[in-house]
Amino acid sequence: MSAVAPPALTIDGEQVPVRLTLGALAEIEDALGADTLSDLARMLANPSVRQILLILPVLIRAAGGIAAVPRISEGTIHLGEAMRVMAHLFRDLMAGEVPGKPSPPGPDGAPG
C-alpha cells in the first residue's frame, strides 16, 4: 500500500508542499476579514485572484516552504491547479468541519 503524497503546488515546475493548520486558518481569516468559518467558507467558494495570492503564501509557510513564498506572484503557477489544491485543503471547511476537530457521530452513533 503506497502513501498518499501531501498536497503540493507546482511553481516554475517545482513541487512546493502546502498545508492547512489551525494557525494558517486563523491567518487566512484575518487576511480576508472573515469573522467566522462560515464567512471564510463563503469567500472561498468563489475566490478572487487577490484572495488566492493572499492564501497561497500562508499554506506554503505552514508546510515549511518559506523560500518558495516570494516566487508566488512572479513564478509560473497554473490557476486551475492552485484552485484544485486550495479546494482539496479546504474541503472539510466547506463541509462545515474544522481541521483538527473530530466529526460528529453519524446517524448510527458511529464516529463520522
The secondary-structure element order is EEHHHH
Q: Give the beta-strand count.
A: 2
Fraction of residues in H or I helices: 40-55%
Contiguous helical run count: 4
Tertiary shape: globular
Q: Stretches where pLDDT falls below 50 for ≥5 residues?
A: none
Q: For the report, how would you describe the main beta sheet?
A: 2 strands, antiparallel
| Alpha-carbon distance between the two ends | 24 Å
Integer-rounded radius of gyration: 15 Å
Quote the average pLDDT.
82
In terms of structural class, how would the helical and strand content be classed? Answer: mainly alpha
Secondary-structure map with pairings?
Elements: E1 8-11, E2 14-17, H1 22-32, H2 37-44, H3 49-62, H4 79-94
Antiparallel strand pairs: 1-2
Helix pairs in contact: 1-3, 2-4
Kindly describe this structure.
A two-stranded antiparallel sheet has the order 1-2. With 112 residues, it is mainly α. It has helices spanning 22-32, 37-44, 49-62, 79-94, and strands at 8-11, 14-17. It contains 4 helices and 2 strands, in the order E-E-H-H-H-H. It is 44% helix and 7% strand.
Which descriptors would you attach to this protein?
112 residues; mainly alpha; two-stranded antiparallel ribbon; 4 helices; 2 strands
